[in-house]
Amino acid sequence: MQTDLQRCEWLREHGWKVEGEAVIDRQPVRWIEHDRGSRSAWLRIVDGVILWHGAEDQEWTDFVSEQTKPAKSGPKLRTLFEFGDDHE
Fold first, then answer.
1. CB atoms closer than 10 angstroms to residue 5
2. For the purposes of burial, counting CB atoms within 10 Å of the CB of 13, is it exposed (0-12), middle (13-18) or buried (19 or more)?
3. pTM of the model as a whole
4. Fewer CB within 10 Å: C terminus or N terminus of the chain?
5. What pLDDT does 64 receive?
6. CB of 30 closer than 8 Å to CB of 14
7. How many CA atoms does the CB half-sphere of 73 hold within 13 Å?
8. What SS3 class is residue 30?
9. CB–CB of 42/32 below 8 Å?
10. Maximum Cα–Cα distance for the chain, whole Å?
11. Strand ranges of the sheet holding 27-34, from the earlier edge strand across to the other edge
12. Helix or strand or coil: residue 7?
């Protein structure tokens, strides 16, 4: 199990800002926000659970797995060279 400092370091290495502390339901939490501003949540300090706004809480290991999945490639664009020289 990772410590709070290890989780914070991992988040920073993967494009997340880790900011101030607060207390929610008697549990200390940190505010996290992705650099692109598309996602934000509370990170529970004790166990690393991600407390998403309007979504289910997420265990740290599930979160890491989701964040490190290879990006899905979009549809490939056709190029002029795809048809070869003999295509009119």
1. 8
2. exposed
3. 0.74
4. C
5. 94
6. no
7. 3
8. strand
9. yes
10. 72
11. 16-24, 27-34, 40-44, 50-52
12. helix
In the prediction, which pLDDT does 44 show? 96
In the chain, % helix, strand, coil (3-state, to 5) comes to 25, 30, 45
3-class DSSP state of 83: helix
Q: What is the mean pLDDT of the chain?
A: 86
pLDDT tens column, 5-47:
999 999 999 999 999 899 999 999 999 999 877 889 999 999 9
- The C-alpha atoms of residue 49 and residue 32 are separated, in whole angstroms, by 12
Where are the extended beta strands (E) located within the chain? Answer: 16-24, 27-34, 40-44, 50-52
